[in-house]
Amino acid sequence: MRKPGLCPAAGSAGPGVLHRLLSLGLCALIVLGCSLPLRRSKPPTTPSLRATVIPTQGSGRSVASTKSVFAKGRGTVGAEQRAMPSPTPSPVPTQTLTPAMRLALAQQAAEDGDYALAIALWEEALALAEPAQRAALAISLARAYMEEQRFPEAIARLKQAAAEASSPPEKAEALGLLARCYEARGEWREVLAAYAGYLELEQDAAPYVRLAMAKAYEALGEDAEAAKQLEAVELAELPPAERAEVLEELAAVRRRLGDDKGALAAYESILQFSRLPEYRALIQYKKGEALRAAGREEEALAVLRGILQEYPNTRAARSALAALDELGAEGVDDLLRAEILYRAGEYAASIEVLKRYAETHGEENAPRVHYDLGLAYEGLEQYPQAFQEYDLLIEDYPQDPLAPAAWMAKARAAAAYGGDPSGLYHEFAKRYPDHPRAPEALWLGGVALERAGDWSGAAAFYQRLAALYPQDQRAPEAKFRQGLALYALRDAA
Fold first, then answer.
1. Class of 333-418 in CATH
2. C-alpha span between 336 and 326 (Å, rounded)
3. pTM of this prediction?
4. How far does CA 196 lie from the centroid of its chain?
5. Which residues have a Cβ under 8 Å from the Cβ of 383 and sit 6 or more positions away?
6. Percent of the chain at pLDDT above 70?
7. Which listed CATH number (1.10.600.10, 3.90.800.10, 1.10.760.10, 1.25.40.10) goes with 1-32+54-72+94-201?
8. What is the pLDDT of residues 203-215, one digit of tens each?
9. 83: closest CA among 102, 55, 60, 64?
């Protein structure tokens, strides 16, 4: 399945054809060059050999269609090569380009991102084309105009292509691109008309087209029509991400229409196949809000509390916490509240909650409180306070499972504070040699010393990492960096 307007331009040369065309063109140029005298006493002055200027549609500029076009970016064109105004109102054939060469060069210019050159060549080709070729050329030209954000010119060419198309797929492609141009301009009625014409000819991209039409109806404030389009989408034809997008859009439209039951059904459908924690939390939150709107408060409370328990590290958890507070819900643990506030970047609020917890619970969960306070102070860049909390955990609760994390956090904070964290990393690796993060500590210590220019210290850290943890993924790089550090140390001596 493909989206409308995203397929290659009809009739455009494939890679093999393009290479053959370029080869033929180069051969022709070589033969032409070999047939000319090695030197002329003066440049030719006959009108037939002067550069012809091709006006570009919708623009006040002119583009030279002979050598001056291909000399773009290679220097200034000489006086004898400058484009001269043509007395004729329409393009005439370029002396040095065959039709095949012109099309190949236009395609190559578009692939290279030189849309101005592509437009000039395709405009010239379109003016000289046979009727059967005009629609395909107009589509290619319109694509280039779209890349340049020149939507009025693109619209004009796509209307031409739709009128002159020789097959339904070609006309459908033109209409799909036309709809996208109108979308860029916010002309929603025209978007709907173009997509409706597309659907009469092509059904491969119907789910994407109906979603786009629904959004156009939403932009017009016509939610009932938007719902009809979304309900007509064949969801089974869509990958999970697009299926979820359609259902989420449908749920939003139904809620605006007051159809909370329909919205809940759409959210439930998403939860049946969605697996991403962040997205599931978001949909659960929206489901909870729909339950609140439907007056099913107890069910809403259960859903919102579930988000806090299952997905505390998500952005939706912060929204769920706010909703629970609005509902006056009780029983939200302060440690969980502080964690959610911290994850949301509300460090000061998190500190306030943690201090309140410490006052009311004494030594209960004290290691967790100290660690979370350290993280929150670190988030506020209040490093002395962060060090104090980490030290309280390390010194008073050395056997607690959070103690190793406190060492690593303290080292990270020391580096952020402008200090040397290598001693802390060394102490971590010494105290917890079997900890999964021991190789990481040695690596980070070596990197810190390397950045400080302490080559001897850095080499020692890298050597220890490679020797003690040869299976670690950083070990090969540690050996390499050890060698570089020793080399730098020798040079310094």
1. mainly alpha
2. 17
3. 0.71
4. 29
5. 377, 413, 414, 416, 417
6. 80
7. 1.25.40.10
8. 889 999 999 999 9
9. 64
